[in-house]
Every structure is written in C-alpha cells, then in structure tokens.
Amino acid sequence: MSNQSKAGVMRRKPDNDNTFLFLTDINSVLVSGEDTNGEFCVVHCSVNENDGPPLHIHENEDESFYVLDGELEMTLGDDTLLVKSGEYVYAPRGIPHTFRVKSKKARFLVTAYPAGFDSFVKELGVPYVEGMEAHMEPPTPEFLHKLIQVSKKYNITYPGL
C-alpha cells in the first residue's frame, strides 16, 4: 500500500507493486528515487542463509545497512564484521563490499544516497509473486552477461568477475 499526502508525507510497505526477486534477495522498494528527487532510496531486503551478492563496488552511491532481524557477515574493504539485529553499517562509495547471511534468514534496510540502487533492483529483478524461491544457484552465462551490462549502467563493478 502506498499513500502520499498533499504535503508529501509517504507511507509504504512491501507489496506486489514494489517487490522484486533480485539475485538471491526479495527486495521491496520502500522509497524510490522518484519519491525523493533522486536524493536517496530505501530498499527492504529479505535474504536466506548463506546467500548474498558477489563482491562489488558502487561508484555512484553510499549505502547504509540496518539489520532488522538476523545476522550478516559483511566484508567492507579489508574489514569483516558480524552485523546483528539492531546494528547499522555505513558503506561509502568506492569500497568493495559484500555480505553473507549467517542466520536462517535476515531482513534489513538498505539506504542508498543518491538514489539509483532502487532502479538497479527494478531493472535486474523480476516482479515477486508470493511463493517464489529466492536461493543461490550457479549463474548462467546469460545471466552473468546481463548482470554485468546492467551494472555498468549504474557504475557497479565486480572485482574478480
């Protein structure tokens, strides 16, 4: 449900209109760049145990992660952190980073500034339908090609790919 008042106050939750199966995640765009004139976006992520993205670098945006439930092992540059429910991590642009879910499942918010990550999720993901499986399988060559092409558009790179 998305409600926005005349004053610009907005209320939104994950639903069929804003949720995508994205790599190994179920991502819901709670606040998009369209909502904030490109200033920032907020994405709610739900990820299963041992899943997470490949090591990558965002050149355009800083990211922050706030863990709602579960535990993430995050690699940020040369640092590896175990991030638990209630903890916040800031990942500046230009720093290689990744995460792996260490609990059965994790839910967390990603805020990116400026916006752009929300558009990346929408372009690379597929609309989520209740019951779709989100799990890691070896990517096909076609998917890797699409991932790299779409990532270039958003200035996201993958060291080692």
From TrEMBL:
Residues annotated as domain Cupin type-2: 46-110
InterPro entries, per database record: Cupin_2, QDO-like, RmlC-like_jellyroll, RmlC_Cupin_sf
Domain of life: Bacteria
PANTHER family in UniProt: PUTATIVE (AFU_ORTHOLOGUE AFUA_8G07350)-RELATED
Name used for this protein in its record: Cupin domain-containing protein
Organism: Paenibacillus anseongense
